[in-house]
Each structure stands twice: as C-alpha cells, then as structure tokens.
Amino acid sequence: MTSELLQPGYHGAFVRDGFGAAPADARAASGWPRLAVKDVFEVAGLTCGAGNPRWLGEQIPARRSAAAVRGLLAAGAVWVGKTVTDELTYSLAGINRHYGTPVNPSAPDRLPGGSSSGSAVAVAADHADLALGTDCGGSIRLPASYCGIWGLRPTHGRIATEGCFTLAQSFDTVGWLARDGETLGRALEALAHTSLGVEQPAGRLLVSADVLAQLDPAVRERFERALADSGLEYQSLVAGSLPLQHWAQAFRTLQAGEIGHLHGPWVRERAPQFGADVAARFAMAMAIEPAAVAAAAQVRRDAQIRLGALLGADGLLLLPPVPGPAPRLSADAAEVDDTRARSQALLCMAGLAGLPQAVMPWTSIDGGPVGLSVLGPRHADELVLHTLRALHGRFRG
Length: 397
Fold this sequence. Notes:
CATH topology of the largest domain: Amidase signature (AS) enzymes
CATH superfamily of the largest domain: Amidase signature (AS) domain
Helix content: 25-40%
CATH class of the largest domain: Alpha Beta
Structural class: alpha/beta
Largest sheet: 10 strands, mixed
CATH architecture of the largest domain: Alpha-Beta Complex
Distance between the termini: 46 Å
Number of strands: 10
Mean pLDDT: 93
Low-confidence stretches: 1-8, 17-23
Shape: globular
Strand content: 5-15%
Order of helices and strands: HEHHEHEHEEHEHHEHHHEHEEH
C-alpha cells in the first residue's frame, strides 16, 4: 500500500481506506464496539506507516494482524480503520507534517494530543467506540485528557506488543481509548484475560504536593476544591516526596537513548523528512552519551523503589494526568514546550516504573477538557480502573 492511499477523513483521524466501513449502528448489532487502530499496529493486508511516508514506503503488507488487534477482533469488535499517529510516535502534540493534525472534536481550536492523536479523535468524534493506541511517554493518557475521553495505559508488559511498531522498548505499552469506562474495561478483560467482576480491595488514595505544583493554577484550584467537596479520604504526600523534574529528565534521557540506538541508523541512512519538532528530538536522541544513559538508569531504579514503597499493594495516586487543557492551535513554540515539559513531569512516573494509569473525563477549563487519572502499583490494572470508574460522577469539576 503506497502513500497515495493515505487519505485523511472524519476529523482527519483516519489514514487507511476502510474507515467508515462499520455503520453507526454496528455496535448495537454486534454487542461489541467499533474499533479504530493507530497506524503502528499491523493489520493483515495493510502496511504499517507509523506516521511517516518514508517508513511506510519501506514496509510490506502485514501477513497477520498484531496480537492486540487479533484479540479485540476475536472478542467481537467491529473494524473501522487505521488512525493518524505523530511521526514514528515521537511526539505528544498530535501534529503530523505529512498527514495533518486531526481536529479535536471537544476543542477544535486546541491540539488533540499525540502520538495517538487519530485514535483519540476517532473516539471523541464518535467515529469509533474503542481505539487502540500506544503509550511510551504519555501517548494514551495525554490525548485522552485533551479530548475528554477515557484511556488506559496498562502495566508495562502485561499486554502483548507483538506486531506493533517499537519506539523505545522499555517504555512502550499497548493502550486504548474509549468514550465510557465500561468499554475501556471490556477491552482490558479481552486483552489481559481477566475479569473486572471480581471484587477489588479498597485502595488508599494519595494526593501529591509535587503533582499540584505542576498544574496550571486554574486546574490546581479546581482539583483542590473538588477534592474537598468529594469527601474522599486520602493521604497527602508532602513536597519533595516525588522529585518529578529529576525523574522527567531521566525519562527523557533513557527514552532518547533507546530511540537513538534503535532508530538512529535508519534515520542517518535514509534521511527521512520529519517535522521540525520530531527532527530535533531524533537529533538529540542520536547524540545521547552512554554515561548519561547509565546515570539516568540509576535514577529510574530509585524512582521504582520510591514509588513502590509509596504505593505498596493498594496505593493509588489521584491526579490530573497533565497540567491543563491542550494548547491552542495558535500557541507559540515556547508555550507548547512548557506544556510538554510539565506534562512529562506528571507522565514520567508510569513510564519509569511500568505502572498502570487510567484517565477519565473530568472538567473543562476555558473550553478545553482536562481529565482525572488514577495511577497504581504494577499489575493492579483492575484496581486502578475499578477505582476510577467508582470516582466517575463523584469527583466533580
């Protein structure tokens, strides 16, 4: 399949013919949701483009679909199509210089968030009920918040990544987005071979002063007010408990080191055309020194130990997954970079420690959605999702 067949449609969310093939009433007819798939997953007979025409042109049609795609289709999901991704998934903005920026249905004047931008937009615009994506540095959680939908980054390694493009192997996870918590949970049951009907223990809610310090002032004020109004019992983590900026820098170094090692040779040899932001990240990744990676690896180990001790078996960190609503399309580079940096400070915890984190719609600030999330211990995906669904409607914006 050549690049000429990449035709955006339906809010610019889709990049493969076949989108719209499932009628609007397909869910009612099948009992299972319409499924969209980020263009980093292999789908039998289609070519995986990973958001870049040069990459697309060097691939061959897949002989069979990725494990996650097969699992959801076998459970009864109805195929809709493939969705736009940021180039080689190396961005959080949702911008693609080749295929455009999908239109955020919840805030058309704002970015949709990446790199699972097309999947988030497809769900938010009701072109799909469920969409597969990936989350390396926040690419499920951030667009879920920006588009006002549900999203889940599972425990690292719990869901098979076979047949999926790899950006940074020790951080990449398969994730998914939905418009409701029930559909999000059904996908977890299908892909993790688990049951959310099993009674879950009561989790300990934690709220961190270090997280609050990263939030936009309006979001922090609303979060603290909603927390007080909710009547929830929680433990406060004092400032300094979570050295988020230090962890975020280690995350960036480790992720870049893996990306440079895995993709650097291809980038040097093929010299693909990237958007300016993605090109700058690849240049940085290919310049990472081994000593920096080694130092960052120790920071990751320290983060894993500290988060493990704080969370234990039942600790659940309650937080907006990102500092505020998506930047406006008219925002300058400095504003976008500041938002990205503070977002990484919040998103890096799950990445460094391989933790599950789920996001739900929560509130709106200046017309832009902001989500609420729960982050929990490794392999506590069921508890995380159960708790978040219980909070829906109780934790008001």
